[in-house]
Amino acid sequence: MKVLLRKYISLKAFFGLIIVLTILSTLPSVLPPYLRVVFIFLFTYIILAESYDIFSGYSGYSNLGHGAFFGLSAYVMGVLLGGLRGGYAPVFQPSLPLPVAIIAGVVASAAFAAGISVPYFRLRGAYFSVASLGLLLLVYYLASNLRFFTGGPEGLHLPGHGEISTLQAYYLLLPAAFASIIINYLISKSKLGLALISIREDEEVASEYGINTYRVKTIALVMSAVLAGYAGASFAYAIGVVNPSGMLGLEIALAPVVMTIFGGAGSFSGPLIGAAVLTVIQEALYTKIAYFHLFIYGVLLLVIGLLAPGGVVRLRWLKKLLKPPE
Amino acid sequence: MVSKGRGDMVFDTHITLIIGGLLLGGIYSMIAFGLTLTFGVSRVLNIAHGDFLILGSVVGLILFELFGINPFLSIAIVAPLFTVVGMAIDRGLIRTIINRAAERALTAAIIVTVGLSMAIEDSTAYYLGQAGGWAGGLGYISIPYNLPPIGLLGYYLPATRLLSLVAIVVIAFLMWIIITRTYLGKVIRATIQDRETAMCLGADVGLTSAITLGIGIALAAIAGLFYVMITSVSPFAGLGLTVKALTIVILGGLGSLFGSVFSGLIIGLIESYVSYYLGTIWATPVSILILIVILLVRPSGLFGRRVEEVRK
Known about the structure:
The structure holds two protein chains of two kinds. By secondary structure, chain A is an all-alpha fold. Chain A has two domains: 1-30; 36-248, no CATH class. Chain A has helices at 2-8, 11-26, 33-59, 66-80, 98-120, 125-145, 147-150, 163-189, 191-201, 203-208, 213-239, 244-248, 250-263, 269-288, 293-307, 316-322; strands at residues 84-85, 156-157, 241-242. Chain A starts with a helix and ends with a helix. Chain B contains twelve helices and four strands. In chain B, strand 1 and strand 2 (10-12) form a beta hairpin. Chain B has one domain. The chains are: A mainly alpha, B mainly alpha.
């Protein structure tokens, strides 16, 4: 174990991680409820951004439909937990315990990712991105149209939502956020990560050198779907309402894309920085301005795309600034 | 499926559905054609393409509500306006992206055009909800412009839709002349086939890219004028329309200009029938399911080239 740790991470960083984890896990007892929710958002966005990066950052395929995994899992969880549909007589209303519901949600989104990889990996580049956006729209429309299962546009109201469920969700999301950062880091050091990066540089050459590109891409996509699915189910449990615009809206679907690219795609630190900075900005903006969130996101994306396509972590002047003087 | 009208005249369900479907298909063809054209020439897939349809319908609505200009006449204002907008976007945004290395350019193109799309959608929604207030704050707009139905061979035909269809056919004819009979069309076709060689042979590829983006965006904006007459448009529908245009492009075969027009008509007809028999809420999901089925069954599309070529 110790050797394994040394291989990937320095002991200093390991203890640092443990200290941060301890602080964060004692925080909810001192935080006011509003800030607790802010942290839940932060953890969700970290998981989403890191999991988006696992597939898209390393392989270069921008998966704009990443939110579909998030929303699908949230819906499966909501239905299995026995969510109430306002106004529609439910066709199917079991009330399974929370862990079973979350696992079912994660499995559903992983299966969805595996299934969709067959047709979708026939597309490349920009075509893949737009088609994956279509996936998000498909799940969105299914969620609002299959009223008897999903409660339509109004969505599902989860039973037993309150102070305690928010606290539970905090402890569900905190370890997952750490796990997603670590998984992303491990992938960057692994053979899988190397294969993904070579696909990003040149898919034909990677294939010539014996990489089963289809299998590598599918594994990465399923891994990112598992993490996003877990985030979706836990986040939905924290919020207590599962509706199409909240779980599958553009704001939550494009957030990981914006955050990852803002921080720097294809690195474990980029999505983390992006998620942390933009969540804080977003919270500050919500309280000041009621409009123009998407507008600000859009302009931010545009400026990053034009001026710093590598993201914040790859800015040369910033690197120079942070480097300790010799 | 025949309902009685006044006198001997009747509304026939299928005739109405086919006219509606062809019109919707014509609108889709216009955006899909523009998308294929601009992607072929500049190699940048403009994800904000569908938003220019929305912007076109917003401009149409403003002209109609404030100045009382007939939507068909406002084509004369919308077309040049959006051509200039498209050329400005090419100069300002797309050009800086194209000059990067291929892999960088791809990611940058997606980021920049998604960002553009979000910015357009949010500010349009804000404008429609606040300043305009036409939609009662909800942001859904439509132009209440209706001509009385025409009676022909004992059937009532929807006149506004027929007129839109005629206008689309005229525009398609103009596009056909531009692509096949003019010097500009020749350069566009050459650039789509091989950008580097076209450049070597003295074609001004930069200017052609700008003009093509202008044409593509103007086509989308004009399509918006027709679209807003047949349905109510939400400012957030733009991305969905881009996805639909892409579905059509893939169905027609990537890079095939004729394929995108033809399959646009097919998708329009399918959606028209799906909307009637299953409800309008199923039109978009069905078209995305069609995309998935095509990718499984025939990834090169109806008129596509060989798969290896398409994959690049």
